[in-house]
Design brief:
Blueprint lengths: L10 H14 L12 H8 L3 H13 L3 E4 L3 E4 L8
Antiparallel strand pairs: 1-2
Helix pairs in contact: 1-3, 2-3
Length: about 80
């Protein structure tokens, strides 16, 4: 899946959907750090703030958590919000 800025779906939502799919399918395993916002920004040609918005969506869904000074990590399924 690629990010399409011309899509009717907001770019942050497209990135959140892409990362969610990778997390739930196991492509990004539990307890694994996500790439930095800067890295994802460069990979997808989007603003860092847009990446941070996508991270916030996933954090709200309980899929990732922030560990201060270390980054964003995938939450194991048994530790996710019900």
């Amino acid at each position: 899946m690629t990010i399409d800025p011309m899509s009717g779906v907001p770019v942050y939502r497209q990135l959140a959907d892409l990362l969610r799919q990778q997390i739930t399918s196991g492509v990004i395993p539990p307890r694994t750090p996500l790439p930095s916002a800067k890295t994802l920004s460069q990979q997808h040609g989007i603003a860092v703030g847009t990446v941070m918005h996508a991270f916030e969506v996933l954090r709200t869904e309980g899929l990732i958590r922030t560990i201060p000074g270390r980054g964003m990590f995938v939450v194991p399924p048994n530790e996710r919000l019900a």
